[in-house]
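step: validate -> pass
step: tokenize input -> pass
step: predict -> running
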Amino acid sequence: MSVDTAMDKTKTEENKTEEALCNVSVLEDENGEQFKIATFEEMVMPIQIIQMGLETRLSYVKDFPYQDGDVLFGSYMKTGTHWTSNLLHCLMYDGPLEGLTSFAPCLLDVFNYQEWPQKRVGNRIMASHLPPERLPTEHFQKGGKTIVVFRNPKDTAVSMFHQMRKFKQLGEMKLSWNSYINYWIEGKIAFVPSSSFFDYYNSWQKQIEEKPEQNVLVVQYEDLKRDSLNQLRRIQNYLGLNHSDDRLQAVLDKCSFSNLKAEVESGKVKTPLIDEEGKSILYRKGIIGDWKNHFTVAQNEKIETVAEEKFKNSMFNYKAWDC
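step: predict -> pass
step: emit ->
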């Protein structure tokens, strides 16, 4: 189901009330390009998300029923959600990997699981970019597995910039890089409902420290890229699996960036994340350090200053592999 279809199905008078409850602002760059954004409580999002029925969506996520074996990915936008979830998809499959097709996990923030075309056989894998306090209550109450993925904020911001420029179903984002990155650092722009990058992960740290019984696993994107086998061992131990190292290496090979990207771009795997020509924008580069091709010295100094303040005493290592 496309984003446009979801919007058409949920446009009601109730949505007009939701728009009235939000603060709507217009972000503008030095060239006069504008992008309309809405703020609802602690979250920011494109105005089109409000028109899809935000309060109904938030209730859907909060009340989402748990099934035994569910795994929920919590991540900020563009931190490796699809790659990591496909690693999990292969880990949780015992058959021959050669015939297994990759998949796109259902993003509960936007889509109904019942209507999601990419359901996998076996235990469910879902994803969300919402802050932890807005995630399914039952999932935590009944001991569901939760994996939080964290990535260097600089590469995260770069990846999100390129996706927002290409994905026009939630508004045409033409802001310059210079304006965008300042808005991003300040937490004023997002792709789907979420708080700022820094507040998002601070909320996770608060929840993990206050509710250790939820047993949340934190995975660092950079560690998973550079120390893949050991990190995959961590994930399978968390899930109670016991594959051999040869099998784990086969999973890594199966989920290489080039393989996953090829399956999506060939149309073998369907995703709603497409550009105006119908081409997938799900995967771009997936590398560490691409931020160096975008950040000026001043921009780098600004995000470093904000990160040091926001992530003081943080469990998340934002400088990991910052090279």
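step: describe -> Residues 101 and 289 are 29 Å apart (CA to CA).
step: cleanup -> pass
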